[in-house]
Each structure stands twice: as C-alpha cells, then as structure tokens.
C-alpha cells in the first residue's frame, strides 16, 4: 500500500496540465505554420519540464516543501523559469523536496515523501527527490533542481538519472529560495547527458539580477556532450580521488565504480590517482557553514512578509510572539535543527571556533582541488556511498543521513561543477558515477559523462 499520486511515486506537489497543454499547443501551431517563426524555435520548444518547488513561478504555488509557504504564490518568475518559458517549454508542475532543500531523502518534505520509482519502499534521494523521480518514472523528460550539498547529484545517482551542478555562478539563482547562498546552484536533471547539455545551455549565462552570476558566456556544452558520445576519451586524464572510495562505500557501488574506470580506460582515457587529504573535513565544515547561512536566509520567514502567520494561542499578540508561533508551526524539525545549529555557530564567542574554522577548511578543500586538477582534467568518484536506502531507515539519525553527502559536498565547498551519470545497477538499484571539473570547465563534465553513459 502506498500513499500519494502517480502510482505511488508522489514526485509532484502541484501539476498545471492546462498551462502546459496551452504552451504545447502553441508550439504545435507554430510548427504547423512553418516559416521563420518555426525555424526560430528553440530545440527544447514543446519539451515538458518539471520544476523543483524551491524555484519560484508565476501562476503556480511555490512551497519549498514547507508548511511555512503553503498556498504562497510568487509574484515573479525565477530567471531560469523566464528562460524556459521563453523557449516555450511547457512547465508540467512543481516537484517535491525536503523542506527548504534540507535532506538527502525527500522524507523531510512537509507534504509526505516521494518514493523511488525503482522500488517504492526506497527513497529517491534528496533534497531534489521529486525532480529525479519524475524523470526516472518517465513523468517528465527534463527537470530543474538545486544543489547546495548534492541535492541534484545524489538523487540523480539513486534514481539512475543524469544531474548536473554547474559551476557556482554559471546559472542564475535569482528566484531560487536561498538555502546557503555561498553553496546554492540551480542545474538540470535529465535521462541523458545530451538533454542536460541543452537545458544547461538554455538556463546558463549572466544575469544582472544575481550578483554572484558569472559575467561570461555559457560554454559549448552540447558540442562537448556530442564529442563524448562518440566514445573517444583519448588524452583525457581522469583522476580517481583516493579519499572518495573504498571504506564506507557499499561493495556494489565500488564494483560499478571500478567497472566505470575500465570503460573509460578502454575509451582511451588515462586513469591517474589523486589525493585530496582535506576532503575528510568537508562534511563537518559543510554542516557548520550551511546551517549558519540557513539561519540567516530563513530569518525572513517571520510571519509578516511571506506565507504563513500564526497568532499565539493565548497571551498578548506581540511581534516576537507572532514570530515564535509562526515558526513553531511553520518549520519542521530538520529546519529547526539547522537554524539552531547555525545561530549557535555564529554566536559571539563561538564564531571563530566554528564558522571561522570551517571557512579555513573550505580554503584547504579548494587547494586540494587545485592540486588534483594539475594532475587530471576531470576527477571521478561514486556519487553516493550507497544505493537508495529504505524509507524511514535514517530519519531518526540525522548524522547517518548527513553521511550520504560525503562525495557531493566538496564540489559545493569549492564552487566547482559536477555531474552524475548512471553507472549500472547493484542488486537491481542504480549506482551513480560523479565527475568533477575545474570551475568554468563544465564542458569537460559533459564530454566525460557522455563517454561513460
Ligand atoms: N543533503 C544535503 C543537505 O541536507 C543536500 C542539500 C542540498 O543540496 N540542497 O544539506
């Protein structure tokens, strides 16, 4: 017995069939009429897309997976949404996520979990489990996700889909509800590397509305994917990150990973080993920096400006008491846990010991990447140490949930891009292989990913 819609997958929080069909009909009419307008259609015109419900949309609700924003409608579109609308891609609806993108299983959604289409008893990863599951279940060919610590790549891995975290600043984040602003990135989710390349080229590029947006053109990603699909990796140095394999990685994951290395070698790649000794501190530093930024970013949910407002059950109605009542009712346990952690880490007297140390670790991780990219053009690791785990098996132990992010977090800490591609099955469940590239070199991910696909 399974709850939720879509044969139990429950990937969508909101579906807007009418709006999507109207756009599809418009594209059909343009194609039928032919001529210059038909010629000018974007290659993705008419291709439906699902949007993670952390990204704001006019005309459809945006909840961030939280009761705090239940029923809230954004008065504006995110820049990426403006771009997919301009390309005439029908927006199917908004996909489920862990509340405010905090989690690795989508079980922290206030609207019930999404289930993995490969096995409805298992999690689809998180926080973007809805986007990944929608694509894996053939409900949508493309989706948008956000990746702060792996929320595009880890769900991609455990659902057998492709997911890309672009270079920090490569895709505008204007209209993505901020989780941890120094780490957040919007990116594509798809079934093939080439599909992600088309979507990434569409949504990427400079946006004056996002002050962290890189002021440079999007790299030639489609071309890189096509080159990779030809299967030729001659001369490409692929660096195996010593610290992101072996102990802690399931044997089935390690086996598929080893086979991927063989496949790349057969395609002409040169496999080298690189060491990133400071990656072992990445998870600890992330779980200080991210909650610190969360505690600041979520302060705007005060019961006054957006969404929910709850009055105190008794006693005087002061601003402080309305704020407290609203947050008590509006935020779930995981969100509260992180806000408390973050405010503690930032408090006077502890700031240097926690946030300050974590920022130093961040620099060390960046140096590890720089050294590794001297020896290799792209780096490779399993995307997640495990295949999809069973629903409910980690919810009571936050640390075990956090451990699932061990391989994805270093990229966010350094701002470098990453991709996950399907790497076969372990006991019937998908295993993901991750490639990482230097900042601005996203094209290398598409070449390597398509070669392995
Ligand atoms: N699992 C990570 C976390 O819980 C993922 C966050 C993300 O990428 N949005 O923080």
From TrEMBL:
Please provide the Gene Ontology terms (biological process) for this protein. translation
Top-rank lineage group of the source organism: Bacteria
GO terms for cellular component = glutamyl-tRNA(Gln) amidotransferase complex
Where in this chain does the record put each Amidase domain?
1-445
Keywords annotated in UniProt: ATP-binding, Ligase, Nucleotide-binding, Protein biosynthesis, Transferase
For this protein, the Enzyme Commission number is 6.3.5.7
Matching SUPFAM superfamilies, A to Z?
Answer: Amidase signature (AS) enzymes
User: Which terms in the Gene Ontology molecular function aspect does this entry carry?
Assistant: ATP binding; glutaminyl-tRNA synthase (glutamine-hydrolyzing) activity; transferase activity
Q: Which residues form the active site?
A: 52, 127, 151
Catalytic function, reaction form = L-glutamyl-tRNA(Gln) + L-glutamine + ATP + H2O = L-glutaminyl-tRNA(Gln) + L-glutamate + ADP + phosphate + H(+)
The cross-references to Pfam families, in alphabetical order and at most eight, read:
Amidase
| UniProt xrefs under NCBIfam families | gatA (TIGR00132)
Which family does the UniProt entry place this protein in? Belongs to the amidase family. GatA subfamily.
Q: How does it assemble?
A: Heterotrimer of A, B and C subunits.
Q: What does this protein do?
A: Allows the formation of correctly charged Gln-tRNA(Gln) through the transamidation of misacylated Glu-tRNA(Gln) in organisms which lack glutaminyl-tRNA synthetase. The reaction takes place in the presence of glutamine and ATP through an activated gamma-phospho-Glu-tRNA(Gln).
**Protein name stated in the entry:** Glutamyl-tRNA(Gln) amidotransferase subunit A
């Amino acid at each position: 017995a399974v709850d939720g819609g879509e044969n139990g997958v429950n990937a969508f929080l909101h579906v807007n069939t009418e709006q999507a069909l109207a756009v599809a009909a418009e594209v059909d009419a343009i194609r039928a009429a032919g001529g210059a307008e038909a010629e000018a259609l974007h290659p993705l015109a008419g291709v439906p897309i699902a949007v993670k419900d952390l990204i704001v949309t006019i005309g459809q609700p945006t909840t961030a997976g939280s009761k705090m924003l239940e029923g809230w409608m954004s008065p504006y579109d995110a820049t990426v949404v403006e771009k997919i609308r301009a390309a005439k891609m029908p927006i199917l609806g908004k996909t489920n996520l862990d509340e405010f993108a905090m989690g690795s299983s989508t079980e922290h959604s206030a609207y019930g979990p999404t289930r993995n289409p490969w096995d409805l008893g298992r999690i689809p990863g998180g926080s973007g489990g809805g986007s990944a599951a929608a694509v894996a279940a053939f409900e949508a060919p493309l989706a948008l996700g956000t990746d702060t610590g792996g929320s595009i790549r880890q769900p991609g891995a455990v659902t057998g889909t492709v997911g890309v975290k672009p270079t920090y600043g490569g895709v505008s984040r204007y209209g993505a509800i901020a989780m941890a602003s120094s780490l957040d990135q919007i990116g594509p989710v798809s079934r093939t590397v080439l599909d992600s390349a088309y979507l990434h080229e569409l949504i990427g590029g400079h946006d004056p509305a996002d002050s962290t947006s890189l002021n440079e053109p999007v790299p030639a990603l489609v071309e890189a994917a096509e080159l990779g699909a030809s299967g030729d990796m001659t001369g490409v140095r692929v660096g195996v990150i010593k610290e992101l394999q072996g102990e802690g990685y399931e044997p089935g994951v390690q086996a598929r990973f080893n086979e991927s290395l063989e496949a790349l070698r057969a395609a002409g790649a040169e496999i080298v080993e690189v060491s990133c000794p400071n990656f072992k501190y990445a998870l600890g530093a992330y779980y200080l920096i991210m909650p610190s930024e969360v505690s600041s970013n979520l302060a705007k949910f005060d019961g006054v400006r957006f969404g929910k407002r709850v009055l105190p059950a008794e006693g005087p109605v002061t601003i402080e008491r309305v704020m407290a009542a609203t947050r008590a009712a509006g935020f779930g346990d995981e969100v509260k846990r992180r806000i408390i952690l973050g405010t503690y880490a930032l408090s006077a007297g502890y700031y240097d010991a926690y946030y300050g140390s974590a920022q130093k670790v961040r620099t060390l991780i960046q140096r590890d990447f720089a050294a590794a990219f001297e020896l290799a053009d792209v780096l490779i690791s399993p995307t997640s140490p495990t295949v999809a785990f069973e629903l409910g098996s980690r919810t009571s132990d936050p640390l075990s949930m956090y451990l699932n992010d061990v391989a994805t977090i270093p990229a966010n800490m350094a701002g470098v891009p990453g991709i996950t591609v399907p790497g076969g099955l372990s006991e019937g469940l998908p295993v993901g292989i991750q490639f990482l590239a230097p900042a601005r070199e996203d094209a290398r991910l598409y070449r390597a990913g398509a070669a392995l696909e």
